[in-house]
Amino acid sequence: MKKIIVQFSTINALMAGLFDGVFGVGEAKKHGDFGLGCSHALAGEVIIDKDFLEADGDKAVKVMGDDELLPFVQVTTFQPDKVVDITDVSKNNLYTHLAHYLPLDNIFVAVKISGRFNKLKIRRPFAQQKPYPSVVKVFEQQVVDTIEDVSGTLIGFWTPEFFKELSVAGFHLHFIDTTRKLGGHVIDFMASKAELAFERKQSVEIVLPEDEEYLRKNLKMDDLNNVIKQVEN
Predict the structure, then answer these.
(1) pLDDT per position in the chain (233 positions), as tens?
(2) SS3 of 96, please?
(3) Residue 14 — φ and ψ, nearest 5°?
(4) Closest CA to 20 of 154, 162, 212
(5) From CA 202, how far away is CA 109, in angstroms rounded?
(6) How far apart are CA 227 and CA 233, in angstroms?
(7) What's the rounded Cα separation, in Å, for the pair 55 and 152?
(8) CB of 43 closer than 8 Å to CB of 70
(9) How far is 177 from 122, CA to CA, in rounded Å?
């Protein structure tokens, strides 16, 4: 099995306001059943855990259909290199936990953390209407939930710092609970005990949009890193 992540579009395109879905769920499915993304018009956070699941600001988590569209998604297969039990893990120290098992500064890593979380902070956006506001404005209006004692799974990727204009540098994680009723983008988390599974990814394939809006959009953003930090955290 190829250790490859297929990424549709780039994070700077999303941060620059290209929110229209141009990639079909059915097409993304051809490349795996593990990953994350967002749905058309930034309507929701997408969690790929076998199914493509959408968590938005005012509706229950739902399974997405093959014809639904995505502006950004990272998808892969997941066959862990290692599965370990860990204790006292949080977003702040996840790097330390993972670095205990492999040097990760120069590679991509698919990450899955399962267990009961003492505390979890997640966000979910609302669908936007054209003309789209800035991405910062969108996430100023998001739903943010802080939940205690919830069981579920964190799914996502570690991306090296030098790829920060293609993807979110560091850890980018989405959450889905065991009932598949609650999900979203992970802002913070803490678990006394959890299972950590990870797989090194040696290749990334980038699929760029072909529509006219993308082709003519100015994607040069001097403040890209600050925008990503505001949106992601």
Answers:
(1) 569 999 999 999 999 999 999 999 999 999 999 999 999 999 999 999 999 999 998 878 999 999 999 999 999 999 999 999 999 999 999 999 999 999 999 999 999 999 999 999 999 999 999 999 998 898 888 999 999 999 999 999 999 999 988 899 999 999 999 999 999 999 999 999 999 999 999 999 999 999 999 999 988 877 666 766 676 66
(2) helix
(3) -65, -45
(4) 212
(5) 9
(6) 10
(7) 14
(8) no
(9) 12
Tokens of 108: 């991509």
Tell me if 187 sits within 8 A of 121, measured CB to CB.
Answer: yes
Query: What do you get for the CA distance between the two ends of the chain, in Å?
Result: 34
Distance of CA 84 to the CA centre of its chain: 22
* Tokens at 209, concatenated: 């949009």
DSSP string, 114-125: EEEEEEEEEEE-
